[in-house]
Amino acid sequence: MTSPHRDRAGRPLVAVTGLGIVTSLGEGKEDNWAALTAGQSGVKRLSRFPVAGLKTTIAATVDFIKAEPFCAPALSQEMAMRAGAEAVGQAGIGAPGDFPGPLFIAVPPVEMEWPHRRALAEAGANGEDVTYATLLAGARTGKFRAWYELFLFGTVAENVARCFGTKGSPISLSTACSSGATSIQLGVEAIRRGETQAALCMGTDGSVHPESLIRFSLLSALSTQNDPPEGASKPFSKNRDGFVMGEGAAAVVLEDYDHALARGAKILGFVLGCGEKGDSFHRTRSSPDGAPAIAAIEGAIRDAGLSPDDIDYVNAHGTSTPENDKMEALGLASVLGERMKSVPISSNKSMVGHTLTAAGAVEAVASLMTIATGRIPPTINYNVPDPAIELDVVPNVARDANVRYVLSNSFGFGGQNTCLVFSGEPG
Fold it and tell me: What is the CATH number for 378?
């Protein structure tokens, strides 16, 4: 009997055996990877709802999936189902509907949408009793039962867990823009602790609707460079003015390396390191000194048993906001030193927009595809370099490279910072 495979800290190695993805560029790894490496943009003018009076009229929406209009949970759930089916199918793990491990899923914050609020208001105007007490009493049996289930925070996770037959209570999490990465971190930690031999880790977000656009606009977070839509997201460029909202989902099947080997699974890569650091500086802004981001980056590299010199490519958070891009560049400069000028550092958000709670998972899939293919997706729309940010952003055109170790950054509102290190080899 061979000895168990362990990492440098004596923990089970965490292998990746399945990947799934849905973004504005299409459904599935094949279509998304072809578009990402071709430098295509999924950003378009919004047609889902009227945009008159809005400062931002563009987004990277998933329009090829029909879900209930103005309803983030419905679209988020459908995208999660499709990404999960691709990942679990590729992994070939367990019988259909009998996944042998837990579900960790990042979902957007859930609240009642405007069409449903309007329906309640109209019901009240028509003399119906729509007080909180009567709504609650009739939520499980009455006319509002579907709404009750739809807007319950854990509903998406419950339905996804039921579909794939995951084990134990599904974990819904929402750690802002680092959520997708956090879902993977939780799966890694569960396997390392020996609690499970497999985990289904996902992030999904279908939140493009009028209220979300207005809220982000009030924070001055969104790009208002609406024409042309595909040119708005320009991470690390001097003329960047905000992020572009995106929709998408991604799923990753993680396994104890020995478990995967025993069943003859194809190994797609490894999650070698996870780093996390909270930041209490501000509810939305990142700490300008970059200290929490630096700690998360250093933590991920240290957890992987590597040094900064080992990193071959950085899949950047790269939102295209003036402050966040500057902070991320500062953090990378602190960790990588002079290598920051030569290590390729690109942002998928230049093409798929910022998929919010799904972003860390979407970028994890892209990171693993980079390792598998030896091709780095570009940062598109990079036409006006920022002299204050000296990074090799793989401008506008994809690049072939020998990539062994990838650092993927996710930095969220409220100081949620999570970084992951991926590799094609066990160490």
Answer: 3.40.47.10
Tell me the mean pLDDT in the region 380-405: 97
Catalytic residue status for 317: yes
Percentage of the residues of the chain whose pLDDT score is greater than 70: 87
Catalytic residue check, 209: no
The answer to whether position 235 is within a domain reads yes
Residues 170, 310, single domain; the answer is: yes
Question: For residue 261, which phi and psi values (nearest 5 degrees)?
Answer: -65, -40
- Single-letter amino acid, residue 74: A
Domain of 337 in residue numbering reads as 14-111+152-423
Task: Say whether 201 is catalytic.
Answer: no
| Catalytic, out of 177, 201, 274, 419 | 177
What is the tens place of the pLDDT at every residue in 164-211? 999 999 999 988 899 999 999 999 999 999 999 999 999 999 999 888
* Cα–Cα distance, 61 to 48 (Å, whole number): 9
Per-residue burial over 44-67, b if 16 or more Cβ lie within 10 Å, else e, is bebeeeebeebebbbbbbbeebeb
DSSP bridge pairs for 219: none
Residues 374 and 267 placed together within one structural domain of the fold: yes
- Point out the catalytic residue in the list 116, 209, 259, 317: 317
Q: Are residues 175 and 119 in the same domain?
A: no
- pLDDT tens-place string over residues 9-25: 999 999 999 999 999 99
- Assess whether 119 and 107 both reside in one domain: no
The total of structural domains in the chain comes to 2
Catalytic-role residue among 116, 209, 259, 354: 354
**What pLDDT is stored for residue 140 in this prediction?**
63
Q: pTM of the full predicted structure?
A: 0.92
